[in-house]
Design goal:
Layout lengths: L2 H6 L4 H18 L3 H9 L17 H7 L3 H14 L7 H28 L11 H9 L3 H11 L2 H5 L1 H4 L6 H9 L6 H20 L1 H7 L2 H4 L1 H9 L10 H28 L6 H5 L10 H14 L5 H42 L14 H12 L1
Helix pairs in contact: 2-15, 5-12, 5-15, 6-7, 6-16, 7-11, 7-16, 7-19, 12-13, 16-19, 18-19
Length: 376
């Protein structure tokens, strides 16, 4: 039936489609249709505290996988993603990776700070929050980056992905929120970082472990996406304010992080600036960040470092932020490749071929000749 291929035709489909499916089923579940509940009761399903029967809460492996397993699945994803962070990267790739990660992170942080100064940081203009802005703008779609740089960039552009994977997960977003005043305890940072760190350690100690865990970066996304959706109301996807906020977030990500990266590349004398444009996207896995932050806020409230009211604010905006980040993922999946194509044409009009690796020790003519021979 080619279900997977059909889903992948949708930008960010492996994240967005399961998320919407989970939200759709949960919305039906919350309608508490009498006929459905009668069937569940007859099957022996345990009712909730309100004496309600829900098909996403039937217990066992089913409920653990499709309803309550969000944080477990995200944690496993981060472990697998950490295993792909290769510490043995070349000098040029390392430089580009650091420049890209820094510019993208600082841009997202700056926009989040400015937004919080002029609007409500929890639910301001178009329902956006500082959490949604930072999570979406600082975490790029590394799969798309690799594909675009593989076609329009050079080897060190592609190699930079080893550093860019550090953006995966909620750690940097939590760090940013901490700098903005959210009082997360140290254990909350450790709890978020530990799966990534352990995965990175094992992946760099054993190449076979890295290859073994590599499918987890893709395999787990639709599962934790469905779990995220299973806690949402499907009608929020049709809320004009929420949708507009997500689209605006996507445009800001492509435009602002792309321009910031180009300026940083120019400042450090990089001729080709394909990399920053290819990284100007939002990763689908960024949609898992609000749930992780909400969980960390609960830990902070439990330890007394954050009031219950403050922690509740993060939980209240988690679903809206997740939807807006998902919409931003869709938006940047369309905008980013178009931006790379146009930027490549612009560079070529200036005599810059992004596919050629730069080298200060060789003349430009010799460099071009060597690269052309390599491609042949």
């Amino acid at each position: 039936m080619r279900i997977k291929r059909s889903i992948e035709r949708i930008p960010g489909g492996l994240m967005v489609v399961p998320l919407m499916l989970g939200a759709f089923l949960n919305t039906i579940d919350q309608l508490h249709i009498p006929a459905v509940m009668d069937v569940l009761k007859a099957l022996g399903v345990t009712p909730t505290k309100d004496d309600i029967y829900e098909f996403l809460k039937i217990g066992g492996f089913t409920e653990a996988l499709f309803k309550t397993g969000t944080l477990t699945l995200i944690g496993l994803f981060l472990f697998c993603a950490g295993s792909q962070m290769n510490l043995r990267v070349g000098g040029k790739a390392l430089k580009k990776g650091i420049l890209l990660m820094s510019s993208k992170y600082l841009t997202g942080l700056s926009v989040g700070v400015l937004f919080g100064l002029f609007f409500d940081p929890m639910s301001g203009l178009l329902g956006l929050s500082t959490l949604a802005i930072i999570a979406a703008m600082t975490n790029g779609n590394e799969g798309m980056y690799a594909v675009l740089c593989g076609q329009y960039g050079n080897r060190s552009d592609v190699g930079a992905i080893a550093v860019l994977t550090l953006n995966d997960g909620p750690f940097l977003t939590m760090l940013a929120l901490g700098m903005l005043g959210a009082n997360f305890p140290m254990i909350a940072f450790i709890a978020v970082l530990l799966p990534i760190a352990l995965g990175m350690l094992l992946g760099n100690l054993d190449e076979e472990i890295r290859e073994f865990l590599k499918p987890g970066e893709t395999l787990l996304v639709p599962f934790f996406a469905f779990c995220l959706g299973a806690g949402m109301n499907f009608m929020n996807f049709f809320n004009p304010k929420v949708v507009a906020g997500g689209v605006a977030l996507g445009f800001m990500t492509t435009l602002l992080t792309g321009l910031a990266g180009i300026l940083i590349y120019k400042l450090f004398r990089e001729r080709s600036t394909i990399g920053p444009v290819a990284e100007a996207s939002t990763a689908g896995n960024a949609a898992g960040t609000p749930a992780a932050i909400a969980a960390a806020a609960s830990v902070a409230a439990g330890s007394g470092l954050m009031s219950p009211a403050e922690a509740q604010q993060f939980q209240d905006i988690a679903n809206t932020a997740t939807i807006q980040i998902s919409i931003a993922t869709l938006t940047t999946s369309l905008l980013c490749p178009i931006a790379v194509i146009f930027w490549d044409k612009y560079q070529r009009s200036k005599g810059i071929d992004g596919r050629l690796e730069e080298s200060s020790g060789r003349s430009e003519g010799a460099l071009i000749q060597a690269e052309l021979e390599l491609k042949q």
